[in-house]
């Protein structure tokens, strides 16, 4: 497998950005594999993701951050991140009782389709320990009560640090994380909300959808912010429903769209194809 | 073309409804063409649409209402309506400036695909008079100001009565009708709202969608009630969008989903396939 | 959980079918839960599925077949089947190497979403034995060579009989069953084909799709007949692709639509909502 | 409105293409508005579309072709085309009897949504002359018989030349053009086929779809080549159908997907976002 460098950039729109970046890579003998860019004219902001093969590249990986910063990023006022495909991100999964999203992620992981490590699963219930055991992944049951949320969060954070977690997936976790927790993983906590946001934010969206009589239900994969269900949206999808559907059948049908949307959002994150700007995402090709 | 009778029913759920209704039709020598039924167990309510060929039917059309009422509907506490396919409904179209929904309806009408009469088009602007002229349909321009809404509504109502209008389609009319107007056409005014309700109710939904950073936009065809954008939903659909989209491109892409959703909602209404119960619709097959 | 009776019928179109069937159920004190019917006017054929609560029903389950046959089915020339919801069907899964469809089925099964027993999994490869072990389901590896297909099929049939299998799901099994095998399970073997049939029947559909430059790929869940990839279609779906996709990315994206389509087809079969007539399916509501 | 230059390129994959092209534009003071590129690794071929503002650009439009050819295209073995947004393409529409695609195109045109001129409509039937009159577009009725196809084509070609037609849209024209005709407009004749190709190529696809019992029908917008229904696909879409659908209802439902797919394909062509390579299309963002 190729070792590649991936740069994600945003900066004020200006002439010569693509030329400068691609020239930098070419001059140092890098072979560009993917390049996708976007200009937001209303915001006068430029966004780009470029990935190139490091085989034969003239700058050593450990010097790349500084070299690019000085040569390109600083002069062009770029906000940017550098990743290497050789860095496999470590993903924690938080769950409650529903298994569909967890199974979908673990089935992909098990088939080698998610380029990720899953060092642990954390839950406030025991229900899914058996699933974790099936896949030989450590499972931590931290029971939540009205009073112990701070202690549970402290332990969750400790575990995430101990297991060197890079990002967290809330796979129908059904609990709200504190602002302090969120602040530790900015744009690195992915939640699946079981409605097409902003419709039916909050609890019991399928009850609300049934009550309103909508003709489609959906799911939204988004980064978690301190504003509940209002974080940057990564992926959304819907399915058609009808008057035949009960709340129970909506819950059941919704599972399919939830798990697909969450897995696609997680895949985009793992592939370093997401970029957040002003509470919205760019999803690169 | 066949002359058929169409009955739409709802009543308390109870044994024998389908048997009683179908037996009534069979006994009088009616040939059932379509039958669709639904039971809402939470509401303990039964819904049915049945359509049969009147050729050879033993009860004269003008006696059918009373005969069925006495024999079946009253004993089973039915709320029901009777229509004949020979009654071509008369549809008024209200528009403002955008032509896409109007053209889509008129193109279908012109091709003989909508079994409807369109006696008039009413607008608060002159822009689409030319479109009405293309299809030889009377166009009434009633200019709206801050102060003349009651007079304009009075004239709209007078025109609808004069032209014997059965139902009204708000084809991006962009004005709110008064509760009094709505009350004259209960479940007989169809609006297209340019979002997947309940998300982005109210004005400028594409601006709101762009601002929120959603990954899909939609449209909702619904019956108008006095509660703005909260009436019974007939049809909804969405299309995928991306970070490349501007407010302007959302407006443009949205037109396609708006016109398709509205035309499908209008088609369902014309075919007498809709039934409203407690602010939700049953859409029969 | 309710014990219900489910009848699926087709017969020549004629007056009084719905009335006769529903009257039969009502007269014997049965409460109809679901009823869906369809008339194919070109074929002059009537189709119906009706499900009713057996609680308080006046005919004993073991007498129902004969009573309905004499009273209704024979006079109306019905081809029909009777099932009871208390009969949990037993499903064998045949796999080769790809795990996505198997995991999707087993995750649903494990969550109690599929009302089915899965007594065994059969494969021509060892790859997925580990998955079967995760879910504690017996796994039989029957290695296929050029020469031993008859022996392998004999053993497959023996196992299916021993384990009292009602129907078989080919979850990307990638092998063709003999006509003799198919004849043992008519309309009871479900295959997932990785294209929107009839496009790209046969081997390597993603290669063919890539070569043709289509803009969408799909999957087809169908009953297996002796005519390869030509059996009655139960369910189909597609996803959009683009020029960016390689054969490899089509294979990967295709997995998502394959597993969803197969699971929906299996669900419809388990719920006794499918009916085959002249190589086409009726899928009841 | 901005005057922009649009370049579409394909060439052997090699280092420095993006850098060279973007540097060329920047050096001559061009502001890049859109850039999208794609590398086909299997074909080792690079594709790019770049659009920039000509305001302040240092090279005069009439010298741009030669300057870019010598500086960039020849050294990099590019096959490329140059367009200016100020060149409004001239589109002929060929129709037979069905009005839905024609109305959809003309409604968009009339609303100013298609940046195109429509100098004439050609048909082998008189049916749609009235539609052309509604929009004040010259309509030429050239009646086709078994024997006069060469003469009719000669007259069609003469008209297209006289009216300076750049490309042709077959909006359900239902006739096969000769190879000689096609050769005059390579990748400049767009057809809508009423199936998801390659399924149901040829005549009567809805009859074939109904007969096969598929659960979705579709439409394909493609460039016409001498190989019937096998040209490069620009756009495809599908809609769900069911056992309730007759051939007639498929024809009716299919109209909606046909007109949407054709209009999107035409829009992509007008925006110079299509590029054909080896019978497949790149559709740029």
Description of the structure:
Four copies of one chain form a homotetramer. Chain A has 285 residues and is an alpha/beta fold. Chain A folds into two domains: 4-84, ACT domain (Alpha-Beta Plaits, 2-Layer Sandwich); 90-283, Formyl transferase, N-terminal domain (Rossmann fold). Helix content of chain A is 33%, strand content 29%. The first copy, chain A, is built from eight helices and 13 strands. The first copy, chain A, has helices spanning 17-27, 61-73, 100-110, 129-134, 149-162, 179-184, 205-212, 247-270; strands spanning 4-12, 31-40, 45-53, 79-84, 90-95, 117-123, 139-141, 167-170, 189-193, 216-223, 233-240, 274-277, 280-283. In chain A, strands 7-6-5-8-9-10-11 form a seven-stranded mixed sheet. Chain A has a four-stranded antiparallel sheet with strand order 2-3-1-4, with helices on one face. In chain A, strands 12-13 form a two-stranded antiparallel ribbon. In chain A, α3 (100-110) runs parallel beside α8 (247-270) and α7 (205-212) packs across α8. The relative contact order of chain A is 0.12. Chains in contact: A-B, A-C, A-D, B-C, B-D, C-D.
Strand content of chain A: 25-35%
CATH topology of the largest domain in chain A: Rossmann fold
Mean pLDDT over all positions of chain A: 97
Number of helices of chain A: 8
Largest sheet, spatial ordering of strands of chain A:
7-6-5-8-9-10-11
Q: Strand tally of chain A, please?
A: 13
**Shape category of chain A:** globular
Query: Tell me about the biggest sheet of chain A?
Result: 7 strands, mixed
Task: Provide the low-confidence segments of chain A as ranges.
Answer: none
The count of domains of chain A is 2
* CATH architectural grouping of the largest domain in chain A: 3-Layer(aba) Sandwich
N-to-C SSE string of chain A, H for helix and E for strand: EHEEHEEHEHEHEHEHEEHEE
Alpha-carbon distance between the termini of chain A?
20 Å
Helix content of chain A: 25-40%
Return Rg of chain A in Å. Answer: 21 Å
**Name of the level-1 CATH class of the largest domain in chain A:** Alpha Beta
CATH superfamily placement of the largest domain in chain A: Formyl transferase, N-terminal domain
Keywords (chains A, B, C, D): Hydrolase, One-carbon metabolism, Purine biosynthesis
Protein name (chains A, B, C, D): Formyltetrahydrofolate deformylase
GO molecular function (chains A, B, C, D): formyltetrahydrofolate deformylase activity
Organism (chains A, B, C, D): Carboxylicivirga sediminis
């Amino acid at each position: 497998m190729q070792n590649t460098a991936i740069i994600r950039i945003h900066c004020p729109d200006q002439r010569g950005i693509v030329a400068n970046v691609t020239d930098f890579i070419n001059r140092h003998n890098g072979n560009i594999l993917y390049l996708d860019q976007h200009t937001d004219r209303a915001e006068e902001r430029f966004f780009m993701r470029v990935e190139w093969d490091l085989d034969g590249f003239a700058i050593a990986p450990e010097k790349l951050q500084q070299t690019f910063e000085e040569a390109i990023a600083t002069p062009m006022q770029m906000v940017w991140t550098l990743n290497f495909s050789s860095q496999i991100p470590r993903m924690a999964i938080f769950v409650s009782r529903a298994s569909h999203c967890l199974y979908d992620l673990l089935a992909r992981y098990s088939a080698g389709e998610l380029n990720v490590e899953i060092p642990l699963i954390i839950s406030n219930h025991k229900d899914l320990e058996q699933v974790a055991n099936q896949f030989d992944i450590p499972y931590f049951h931290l029971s939540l009560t009205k009073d112990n949320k701070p202690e549970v969060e402290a332990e969750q954070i400790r575990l995430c640090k101990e297991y060197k977690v890079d990002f967290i997936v809330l796979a129908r976790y059904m609990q709200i994380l504190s602002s302090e927790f969120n602040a530790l993983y900015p744009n690195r906590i992915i939640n699946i909300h079981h409605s097409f946001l902003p419709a039916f934010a909050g609890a019991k969206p399928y009850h609300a959808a049934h009550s309103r009589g909508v003709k489609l239900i959906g799911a939204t994969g988004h980064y978690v912010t301190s504003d509940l269900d209002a974080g940057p949206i990564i992926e959304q999808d819907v399915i058609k429903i009808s008057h035949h559907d009960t709340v129970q059948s909506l819950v059941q049908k919704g599972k399919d769209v939830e798990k697909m949307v969450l897995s696609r959002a997680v895949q985009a994150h793992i592939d370093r194809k997401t970029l957040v700007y002003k509470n919205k995402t760019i999803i690169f090709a």
